[in-house]
Amino acid sequence: MDFQQNIVGQDFLTKTKSPEYACVSIIGDIVEAINFDASQMFIQWEIQIPDRWQLDIEELVELEQQSFDLVQLEEWNRIKSITQTSKASSQKTQDGQLQSVAHFCFPFDLQMQVHQDDLNSKFPILLLQVNSFDSWDRNRIEGYGFVEIPHDPGYHELRVKTYKPHDDIYTRIYEFFLGGAIKVKDFPSIASSYYLNNNNQKTVLNRFNVNTESSGDIIIRVNVSIQKEQYKKESIDKHETKMKEEMKEKLREKREINGTNTLGTTLFKGSMGFINRYQQTGLQ
Questions:
Q1: pTM confidence score
Q2: For residues 186 and 164, is the Cβ–Cβ distance under 8 A?
Q3: Is residue 126 within 8 Å of 80, Cβ to Cβ?
Q4: Burial state string for 4-37 with b = 16 or more CB within 10 A and e = fewer than 16
Q5: Rounded to an integer, what distance in angstroms lies between the CA atom of residue 32 and that of residue 130?
Q6: Segment 129-142, tens digit of pLDDT
Q7: Cβ contacts of residue 120 below 8 Å, gap of 6+?
Q8: 38, 59, 124, 145: which has the highest count of C-beta atoms within 10 A?
């Protein structure tokens, strides 16, 4: 444990604004898209950051001063992007059924700071839009989906269900022959439950009249790391308590061994003395 702490250390990689703030690292990748009705796809994604959450820009400036690779810096704290195009292939599941899978493995990396009181509230949300195109360059939207980043630190594998708008037969025929599709006007609104009206007031967003149909699934892998002073203190206290318990256990075992050796010597001497007395009595 001491060796591990000497390597890892106990200080934060990023300096927080104050002890009340926490550092949140979100490192993940868009793994694959499953069971979409398309042969070639790409995914447009965006991370919606809640209020009072801030991207860690100061550390990015420090990295720029250390002459890091510009390509590496461009991928740091990117909140929106588009994956490469992936061609779907048929694969067998464990049940022996065939499913269409398009692999992406497209990474994303966010470093943020937030007040510790806001860690129990809403976390960043990953918005997803699956697009397809064919050999005639006809573009279609295959599905929308979103998922909130898990609150618990550690590794998470998420399966995001998607949907797409469903319209009348004429629109579907037009989409089939010429491409195009009904598109959400405001992409971030797919994860919102309200909108701002003309008076700049929050109003409930009603989706009752929107017709949709189920689409495929997207697999996401996410690693979440949270650093804050409270965790640091708890970790130090836990380590000290563990060391004290180990020392007590070693002392207890040492005392038991010493007591057993003393008792064994006494019995051995007593037995020898008894045997000697018995032999002396028998000889007489």
A1: 0.71
A2: no
A3: no
A4: eeeeeeeeeebebeeeebbbbbbebbbbbbbebe
A5: 11
A6: 999 988 888 888 99
A7: 151
A8: 145
